[in-house]
Amino acid sequence: MSGFPDNVELVKKIILINIVQKISLETYWINPFCEVRFLRSDSSNLQRAGKDLFKESIWYLFNRYEQGDEKNICLFSTRRGGSTHLMELIATNRGVRFCDQPFSLNSSLSGQVRHLPIFDRSQVISLNEDDEAMIRTYLEKIFSGVLNVQTPWRFWRRDFDFLANRLVLKIVDAKGIIDWVDRNFPVYIVYSTRHPIPTVLSIMRNQWGLTARAYLHDHDFVRNYLDPDQADYAECMLLNGTLFQKHILNWCLENMIALRLIAQRPHWLYISYEALILNPDETIEKLSKYLHLADILRMREKISRPSKSTRDLSTTDARAAIKDGDGCNIISRWRRELSRQEERVAFDILDRLDITVYQYGSDVPVGSE
């Protein structure tokens, strides 16, 4: 179910117009009501447009792709959930190229926007026939190498692969279609979670917004995954809860589809952030066996180095703990920031929505202790 169902083409044109006009010293904003406003130039827009143009040029000139014998990989996860670290770990294998958030409209480039429907709050949850056709074509172009979306572009680095034969897509805004992707493409499915409280605290620290309203506006999602009492509860929480409670609710709604399905999909690989940190060798062996990844030594070297998102978005203490390899400190550090009572408030929401993968008082998923 797309957002803006009656104005998709108009909204797409508006976005494209404004992307193009970012490279102008004077910027015009055209809104859906045909008002035209003259804005003073913003050098940051110009710099970003220049960087985007440079990246797309690198992708066109240097990123060659020839599909190999092994299946591509779709990694479904949550923002600030360790997904970048896991994506980069998989992509250390020779010939494997990452594609970072191909469904995110918040970080999209012009070449990406042209191929995607416009979804409410960038969340791909339910698909109508037109949405399905567009996304099918979009993924086919990515998997064939015709379209480069958020792939590596720093060609001067030693780990840059000029030729790749396999892709790993990190998907955080389209967990709602994890089963659809599995049914329609010959890919490996990896699903990853991190404890909701540290995930939420990191999101709040970075002042990122909520996506919950997109789920509660999606009639198919509400009908299939929430009973009437849960739907009323979620609406009330989104209206009256604290910001912390709203973000916990958000985590639940974003992960609900995958969590409900995973027990019925034994061919999916589940990797928790906590397992990656506490049991790196065991997790690497699991990734290697399930995904047919051969470069175990390179993955072991990579796993102790912070990901790009950790370097850019995490606290100094978090980066130091990762560098020191202090796994227990990494996964339990969040307990210094809130009380047991606040933890109980968070798990009241998980319990109400029948989310059982994490339990009150534990830092790791059920079955990991």
Task: Describe the protein's architecture and organization.
The protein is an alpha/beta fold and 369 residues long. Helix content is 50%, strand content 11%. The protein is built from 18 helices and 9 strands. The strands form 3 sheets. Strands 5-7-4-8-9 form a 5-stranded parallel β-sheet, with helices on both faces. A two-stranded antiparallel sheet has the order 1-2. β1 (27-30) and β2 form a beta hairpin. α7 (196-205) crosses α11 and α11 (243-261) packs across α18. The longest helix is centred in the first third of the chain and has 20 residues, at 43-62. The two termini are 39 Å apart. The relative contact order is 0.13. Residues 1-8 and 10-41 have low confidence and may be disordered.
Mean pLDDT score? 84
Cross-sheet strand order for the largest sheet = 5-7-4-8-9
Cα radius of gyration in angstroms? 21 Å
Cα(first) to Cα(last) distance is: 39 Å
SSE order in H/E notation?
Answer: HEEHEEHEHHEEHEHHHHHEHHHHHHH
Question: How many H/I helices?
Answer: 18
Helix content class: 40-55%
